[in-house]
Amino acid sequence: MGTEQLVQRRRHAMGPAYSHFYREPLYIVRGEGVWLYDDDGRRYLDCYNNVPSVGHCRPEIVDALSRQAATLNTHTRYLHHAIVEYAEMLADTLPGDLSVCTLVCTGTEANDLAYRIARAVTGNEGAICTHGAYHGNSTLVSELSPGFARKRPKPDVVADVMPPDVYRGPYRSNDPDYIEKYVQLVDDAVDELADNGHKPAMMIIDSIYDAAGIHTPPPEYQQRAHQRVRAAGGLVVCDEVQSGLTRLGDHWWGFMDSGVVPDIVTMGKPMGAGHPLAVVVTTPEIAADFARESSYFNTFGGNPVSATVGKAVLDIVQRDDLLSNVRKSGDYLLAGLRRLGEKHALIGDVRGKGLFLAVDLVRDRETREPAAAEAAEIMERMRESGVLVALIGEKRNAIKFRPPLVFTTEHADIALNALDQALEEEQ
Ligand SMILES: Cc1ncc(COP(=O)(O)O)c(C=O)c1O
């Protein structure tokens, strides 16, 4: 079946709300490692997908999944060793008292449950989230997602704060007090909630601000923001759906870069390497408080197949030392992107950490005017040369690199050449 025909059929069968990447949508039929293959057998280097964390269709994952699927798949109302083992393995990767896992299916569900727990434990209703953030698509969580999902006026139980953006934000790194000024915005958010008659149940923080354009918060910001939220009676929830599982290259979980320990951590996307698996982790104390008010059941969350897949993912991350791979490949890619920044005036900023990087394109390095149309063109040209990237940022003018964790320096060279060539053609 041709691509054009499939586009028409999809629109008819699934409606217009679904979007697709690229002017000419890709019809991908096979994946292997960091490579995707279209229906004509053409291969593309995947610099975008974080869900196939240990590589597309990794044989060990396929094997673990099919063996367990052929043996048993039920739910958490029966005892099963794999479910308990997975929770124990995950707790071993986390600092402090973060040791009690609730297994769910999506990042949205994880953040939804985190908010419920925070409200139950604190007795407060309010939530603080960051401008441009995306935390999921349920009715509740979309209110915490000013980036894409919140389409209605902000409810008065939610306050948005500007996360540290030292490139285009109101306070930049040349201001000696920029960190405290961003922290002050958290205090302002607490005041805004108080004016509306609310106290914060939680602040939900990304360990790297993806949807806002891939900004890495300074550790002092995270530390002070945690203090201010707790002083106001709220819990701190770190959303590790994007930044977790070694993605940032120094630790298993992004928040560990800042030396902080949140009250609740949410995880998703890469945890099941393509299988829907997400997790909420908290402390025994908070879990006990929540359990006094509520029980929890999720039909598919934590089924033995998901848990078995999750274990296989953690095994591979450990055995193949993907943390070191991310650091090595990420540093290499970052250095290469910075070299391209010296060559091409269109590159205004290169930022990010590990295998989570952004190349911010500007029309003018002084004004930093976003070069959105140019970024879209470059993304299309890279696709034509067989390299898949995406756009990010409020104006979608930054090229985003967030490949599977098994991405190597050889793959980075291919991506760098494709970007270099696309930028040449743009001039
Ligand atoms: C940071 C973050 N949190 C939560 C979510 C929601 O995850 P899901 O799409 O699995 O519901 C996303 C999805 O893009 C995300 O990027």
Task: Please provide a written account of the structure.
By secondary structure, this protein is an alpha/beta fold. Among the domains are: 60-319, 3-Layer(aba) Sandwich (Aspartate Aminotransferase, domain 2), CATH 3.40.640.10; 322-351. Helix content is 39%, strand content 16%. Strands 4-10-9-8-7-5-6 form a seven-stranded mixed beta sheet, sandwiched between helices. The two termini are 38 Å apart. The mean pLDDT is 96. It binds pyridoxal-5'-phosphate. Pyridoxal-5'-phosphate binds at residues 106-108, 111, 134-136, 206, 210, 239, 241-242, 268.
Question: In a nutshell, what does this entry contain?
Answer:
The protein has 427 residues and is α/β, with parallel strands linked by helices. It is built from 12 helices and 15 strands.
Layout of helices and strands:
Blueprint: H1 3-14, E1 28-32, E2 35-38, E3 43-46, H2 59-71, H3 81-92, E4 100-104, H4 107-122, E5 126-130, H5 139-142, E6 158-161, H6 178-195, E7 200-206, H7 219-231, E8 235-239, E9 264-267, E10 278-282, H8 284-293, H9 304-319, H10 322-343, E11 347-353, E12 356-361, H11 372-384, E13 387-388, E14 390-392, E15 398-401, H12 409-426
Parallel strand pairs: 3-13, 5-6, 5-7, 7-8, 8-9
Antiparallel strand pairs: 1-2, 2-3, 4-10, 9-10, 11-12, 12-15, 14-15
Bound molecules: pyridoxal-5'-phosphate.
